[in-house]
Amino acid sequence: MKIYIKSPGRVNLIGEHTDYNGGFVLPCALDLSIELYFEKKLNESHVNTDLGYSMNFNVSTPYQKSNNHWENYILGVINELKQFKTELINFSCIIKSSLPSGAGISSSSALVCGLIKGLAELNAINLNNSKIINLSRNVEHKYIGLLGGIMDQFTILNARKNMAIFLDCKNLKSKFIKINFKEFKLLLLDTNVKHNLANTEYNKRVSECKKSLKVINDFCNKNYSNLSEVKDIDLRLSKNELGETLYRRVSYILKENQRVVKSVNFLENNKLKEFGQLMYQSHLGLKNDYEVSCDELDYLVEYTMKFDGIYGSRMMGGGFGGCTINLIEESLVEKFVEEAEKEYFSKFKRKLNPIVANLDQGIQMSLI
């Protein structure tokens, strides 16, 4: 008997870098996924991937960090699961992926959630989605070094087909929003600028936000638990104490939260053009105030503005590479992609990887 797990990637319609600040996000699961096949083994564990990576080990061996970055995903999950059951079963795992890594569509969280779900089932460990989310975050924080929020894991585990999740990351209250893009499609343009978030300024933004929160609480004598709670008046009062850079970081978070709330209203009322304008505003904030964009992302977003059949575009994910997400008329996709690929290669000498994003359900498990 084998355990089969299909763990999807995710897109975030709007609400970037707000999750670790206790704010709002609007993600969906993708029809691109990581597939994992688990089977019990007696003496040794084997993991093989379609990217050419493989490893052999014994689950009873005490945890030791590997010099091979990807192996720490496996070893970290095993070590965290030992909190629930000290004696785990050796296993084989075959991993196949249609998710491009480094594209900002959460291949990392899809892998971790899939590993936890499959190995928990294999070892008869009863974990609900909330526990899997917490375990997954622990793995990414402690073993991978990525201090991300909770959006990716929540989406991977809870998403529904053709729905977005309006998620409050402070208390995990959520509402499913029916998505009907009519004659429009979500088109992802992967810049093929590969980012490893642990080695970029992503974690620096997390620490900047923590510092900003402390400055505002101390100066205004408040007890905000995260930046998304901060009132505009307290931000203005704290401007000199924060300094220009931190002021812009907080300003972006507060404005992006408002954009998510407005987006929900627009999407529920099929106001796609208005939603698209918020996507452009989001990108400008990410570029100028939060400073997590790059030349390739900026070029692709600006390039869309000459097409009437594209309502919105912005960078998506942690930044410093990865994808843009574009709301585009389906009839325009082929022509636009052909032109964009040509112009992008001419300017950056890189190939563009277009992905039409169809919205799918969350993680699935079956016995085969």
How much strand? 15-25%
CATH class of the largest domain: Alpha Beta
Percent of residues in helices: 40-55%
Globular, elongated, flat, extended or rod-shaped: what is the shape? Answer: globular
| Mean of all residue-level pLDDT scores | 95
What is the overall number of helices? 10
Report low-confidence residues grouped into runs of 5 or more. none
Determine Rg (CA atoms, Å): 21 Å
Structural class: alpha+beta
Structurally, the number of domains stands at 2
Biggest sheet statistics: 7 strands, mixed
Counted beta strands: 14
- Quickly give the CATH architecture of the largest domain: 2-Layer Sandwich
> Gap between N and C termini, in Å?
6 Å
CATH topology of the largest domain: Ribosomal Protein S5, domain 2
The SSE order reads EEEEEHEHHHEEEHHHHHEEHEEE
Structure, described:
This protein has 10 helices and 14 strands. It has 368 residues and is α+β, with helices and mostly antiparallel strands. It has 2 domains: 3-178 and 361-367, Ribosomal Protein S5, domain 2 (2-Layer Sandwich), CATH 3.30.230; 184-359, GHMP kinase, C-terminal domain (Alpha-Beta Plaits, 2-Layer Sandwich), CATH 3.30.70.890. α2 crosses α3 (129-144) and α7 packs antiparallel against α8. The radius of gyration is 21 Å and the shape is globular.
Question: In brief, what are we looking at here?
Answer:
By secondary structure, the chain is an alpha+beta fold. It has ten helices and 14 strands.
